[in-house]
Design goal:
about 170 residues; alpha/beta; Rossmann fold; 7 strands
């Protein structure tokens, strides 16, 4: 598993897509965002267009573990993104520990390659409200758990990838 971390609009998705193209495996895109407004529908359509047509797209806001459990060897999954997945579970008032454990167990048992996009939210100021602070803590803990399991962790800043754990794959830089 590879985890790609960065701030909002840092270029994480583009770097992650490039990782999947480098692999030459059958590409699957797991979209966790829910498109509740026109802005999100437009953003999702732009992502779909930029990826091209040779992806199988699965839209699943909560049950990423089930999608991951169905993967096979010879596939690569781009899970974009763990941040939206976490937000969806927080708003659904899910048991975050249980959901994280299910996600990590599915990842551990998966024969496919997985690239997970996640936001680094701990570099800014302390949020003013309790929900935002709770989210920042939960996101930091999720990122740490994912990074501990990953063979490679890539940071992205201003569209530039850098290795946090492991090495950048050839052709990525």
């Amino acid at each position: 598993m590879t985890v790609v971390l960065g701030g909002a609009s840092s270029g994480k998705s583009k770097i992650s897509e490039k990782l999947c193209f480098i692999s030459k495996l059958d590409r699957i895109y797991l979209a966790s965002a829910e498109c509740h407004d026109q802005e999100m529908r437009t953003k999702a359509a732009q992502h779909r267009t930029s990826r091209g047509e040779d992806w199988c797209t699965i839209e699943e806001p909560l049950a990423a573990d089930r999608v991951i459990s169905d993967l096979k060897a010879g596939q690569i999954l781009l899970f974009d993104c763990a941040t939206m997945w976490l937000s969806n579970h927080m708003f659904a008032e899910s048991d975050l520990m249980a959901e994280t454990e299910r996600l990590l167990a599915a990842i551990r048992d998966c024969p496919a390659e997985i690239v997970i996009v996640s936001n680094e939210v701990g570099l800014g100021i302390v949020p003013e409200n309790a929900l935002a602070r709770r989210f920042r803590i939960a996101q930091g803990e999720l990122n740490q758990r994912l990074a501990a399991e990953a063979g490679t962790v890539i940071g992205v800043m201003a569209g530039l990838p850098f290795a946090l754990k492991g090495q950048l794959p050839e052709g990525l830089a």
